[in-house]
UniProtKB/TrEMBL annotation:
Gene name as annotated: LOC103509093
Gene Ontology MF terms in the entry: cell adhesion molecule binding
Swiss-Prot/TrEMBL keywords: Disulfide bond, Glycoprotein, Immunoglobulin domain, Membrane, Transmembrane, Transmembrane helix
Keyword Coiled coil: no
Biological process according to GO: cell-cell adhesion
Organism: Diaphorina citri (Asian citrus psyllid)
Name of this protein: Carcinoembryonic antigen-related cell adhesion molecule 1
Keyword field contains Transmembrane helix: yes
Transmembrane residue ranges: 6-23
Subcellular location per the Swiss-Prot or TrEMBL entry: Membrane
SUPFAM superfamilies hit by this protein: Immunoglobulin
Coarse class of the protein's main subcellular location: membrane
């Protein structure tokens, strides 16, 4: 049998923005792991590329430069290994290929080559199209936590697993967990055990945090999932909950 050992709401989700350091090249280097280059040519230097050649926002305009001396009329362009039809949003220029109204689908590797001589080609160039991630949310036992209606008991001496889910974001965002004990339990609340985020090529990113055994010192502790992304500049998205521990009743002595 359990009874509340503290007053207050059991769990409260807070979505807020907090200040964290801006990540630029280091973030893009990590993002490169999720943009593996296709086999467009035998250029081994592509494998060592860590920073994009072009970084643009959606709906912007960009011109991709072809660095091979070829008559512009004899140039064809490939996107992730597929031949591109010139027209609509794509137009040739004396310096390369201009893309207007850039879309997320334009993200990837672009390469120019001679239409008739496959030995005349430029190395693939990485175009990164930025997309900010959506607000993260938390889930317990497969059920999304609703910020407007949270009454989920956290029982003492039980395990608690929380999942953080974030959709969107290009390159993929990074997820981090933080446990902030209450002011009265700064040195006694056990830490979180968290897993590395699952980063599929498509679909939402997920990360789990677990408290192996909820104890009284966790009362009023805040569990936060931080989402960092290059488009967020000096801010991170945040989904957090406040723990209200339900303590075990002491056995009665008769």
């Amino acid at each position: 049998m359990y009874e509340g050992c503290y007053k207050g709401v059991l769990l409260v989700i807070l979505v807020l923005a907090i200040q964290i350091p801006y990540i630029n090249k280091a973030f893009l280097t990590a993002a490169h792991r999720h943009h593996p280059p296709p086999s467009l040519s035998s250029d081994n230097n592509l494998q060592n590329q860590a920073v994009p050649d072009y970084v643009v926002k959606q709906r912007d305009e960009v011109t991709l430069v072809c660095d091979v001396l070829i008559n512009p009329n004899d140039i064809v362009w490939l996107h992730n290994g597929e031949l591109v039809d010139i027209g609509h949003r794509y137009s040739r220029s004396s310096s390369g290929l201009t893309i207007v109204n850039v879309r997320l689908e334009d993200d990837g590797y672009w390469q120019c080559r001679h239409r008739d001589n496959s030995n005349l080609y430029d190395k693939p160039k990485w175009l990164l199209v930025l997309e900010p991630p959506r607000e993260p949310y938390l889930s317990i036992d497969g059920r999304r936590l609703d910020a407007s209606n949270l009454f989920i008991p956290v029982k003492e001496n039980q395990a608690l697993t929380i999942e953080c889910i974030v959709e969107g974001g290009n390159p993929r965002p990074s997820l981090h967990w933080v446990l902030e004990p209450s002011e009265h339990n700064m040195d006694t609340a056990p830490n979180l055990v968290f897993s590395e985020p699952v980063t599929p090529k498509t679909g939402p990113m997920r990360s789990e945090a677990k408290i192996e055994r909820v104890v009284r010192q966790h009362h009023n502790a805040t569990v936060m999932c931080l989402v960092n992304h290059v488009t967020l500049l000096h801010q991170a998205l945040n989904a957090s909950l406040l723990l209200d521990v339900q303590c075990e009743s002491a056995p009665s002595i008769e």
